[in-house]
Design goal:
The chain has 224 residues and is an alpha+beta fold. The chain has a single domain, classed as Aminopeptidase, CATH 3.40.630.30. It has five helices and eleven strands; from the N terminus they run E-E-E-E-E-H-H-E-E-H-E-H-E-H-E-E. The protein has helices at residues 59-73, 83-87, 119-126, 150-164, 182-187, and strands at 9-11, 14-20, 25-27, 30-32, 46-53, 92-100, 103-111, 133-141, 168-174, 191-197, 210-215. The chain has a nine-stranded mixed beta sheet with strand order 1-2-5-6-7-8-9-11-10, with helices on both faces. Strand 6 (92-100) and strand 7 form a beta hairpin. The longest helix has 15 residues, at 59-73. The radius of gyration is 18 Å and the shape is globular. It comes from Actinocatenispora thailandica.
Length: 224
């Protein structure tokens, strides 16, 4: 079961979930659906979101979705000079995309934890060696696919994959004042364990964003 309570069929690293998006109507025994999305607008029909491993040929679609997210939500705060490079940083253990049909509508990276601002503090809160952490990174969902549970399923996929590796997930997220989705992680049971100022910020110190470190619920499958 996905974290948002929907049931999905899994196999071969792929999870498919049928979701009734806002504006659609699903009733037992029959299905009444409004028209699908126009470009740039939310889906308004019953859609099937697919979570699967990211491929190299997904990167153009990831960049296109990221550009829409950045324009609407300012994530990332500064558009990267090399967006493909930004989507392929060091320390990646796994990567997934969420698709609807042939369109990439979201993605997430699982990294080795070396990117965490306060890695030692997070490891201490988890009572694990730092090498037993994994980090969720570069998570985004296109606005037109929100309300389908895509973000929660991407996170659930990463947490499970980290657990299979004997690691526990953590992440850095901007404070809500800077648009960080802290409420999403707290709703999914993640715990805030540390707070700092963003070391990567190159603007004025007065504008330096606040970053929170969150720790996922413990689902590791091996003893610490």
């Amino acid at each position: 079961m996905a974290l948002d309570g929907t049931l999905g069929a899994t196999g071969g690293g792929v999870t498919a979930v049928a979701v009734a998006s806002p504006g659609s109507f699903l009733e037992p025994g029959r299905r009444r659906v409004r028209s699908g999305a126009r470009p740039g607008r939310p889906y308004r029909c019953a859609v099937q979101t697919i979570i699967r491993p990211r491929r190299d040929d997904d990167l153009p679609g990831c960049v296109a979705a990221l550009r829409i997210v950045q324009r609407q939500d300012a994530y990332p705060l500064v558009w990267p000079a090399d967006p493909v490079g930004w989507l392929c940083p060091n320390g990646v253990l796994d990567a997934w995309v969420c698709t609807i049909g042939d369109e990439v509508v979201g993605q997430l990276l699982l990294r080795d934890g070396s990117d965490l601002e306060l890695r030692d503090a997070v490891a201490g809160a988890a009572r694990l060696p730092a090498a037993r952490l994994a980090s969720v990174s570069r998570l985004f969902v296109a606005p037109r696919a929100r309300g389908t549970g895509a973000g929660a399923r991407l996170i659930d996929t990463a947490v499970a994959a980290a657990a299979d590796r004997g690691r526990r997930c953590a992440l850095d997220v901007l404070d809500a004042r800077w648009g960080g989705p802290t409420a999403l992680y707290e709703r999914l049971g993640w715990r805030r364990v540390a707070t700092t100022s963003a070391s990567w910020w190159t603007g004025p110190d007065a504008d330096r964003p606040v970053v929170h470190s969150y720790l996922a619920p413990d689902r590791t499958r091996v003893a610490p």
